[in-house]
Sequence to fold (133 residues):
Amino acid sequence: MNPMTTTTQNEFEYQVLACFRKHANTLRLCEPTFRREGYVITATMSAGTSGKVELRYGPAEYVTEIFIYTSADNKRWSLTDLLNNEQIRTWILKNKPDMSGRSRLETEITFAFSLLNEGLVDIPDFHWLASKA
Fold:
């Protein structure tokens, strides 16, 4: 039996779409596509030939994971990889997510989009994320 309910998968999609729309003018990402594979749901947002971002939710911890793929160097960045950058680590520590009045899932997705929109803006490897508008 799949422990992730359809309701949880729908909430994941809703939260990703809400955050995407909020940041659509500042991030150069295409609208997310969703893939449900048993216990895992993944949202993928492409930035054309520059790279893509994946948000994944599922076992084992049932937390939202972020993966950023950069085409220039063909690299996959996890949150652990991002934390190795002092500037990103400092931003994350200064901008810890506030869960008051929100679900854990909503908090994690909101934080992931804040990281993309604000935390990576000055990092050369991720300039392609920012909209030129």
User: Anything to note?
Assistant: The beta strands are 33-37, 40-46, 51-58, 63-70, 75-78. Residues 72 and 106 are 31 Å apart (CA to CA). Residues 6-129 form one domain. DSSP finds four helices and five strands in the chain.
